[in-house]
Design a protein that fits this description.
Distance between the termini: 64 Å
Helix content: 25-40%
Shape: flat
Number of helices: 1
Length: about 80
């Protein structure tokens, strides 16, 4: 198996670190991509209309969920208060 050399990666010096991401050279030779075409991924923004009462209801549900999760976490921590310092 041939060894890689600094000149293969585009570096001038053997100990120099080169960033291969600075240039988009595509996939290695002989590599076939599974996708036939490149698709642009555009972000989609949707606005949900909530009334103030719906918002507060969701907020209360979230806070209760977080409080119960924290309580479960704290209950799992063993506390030994019988030892004196």
């Amino acid at each position: 198996m041939p060894t890689r050399r600094a000149t293969d990666s585009g570096c001038d010096k053997p100990n120099e670190s080169c960033d291969r991401r600075s240039e988009d050279a595509g996939p290695p030779p002989g590599w076939r991509d599974r996708r036939r075409f490149v698709e642009r991924r555009l972000p989609v923004v949707q606005e949900n209309a909530l009334t103030e009462s719906e918002w507060f209801l969701l907020l209360v549900k979230y806070r209760l969920k977080m409080k119960s999760a924290r309580r479960v976490t704290l209950d799992a921590i063993p506390l030994d208060v019988s030892k004196e310092r």
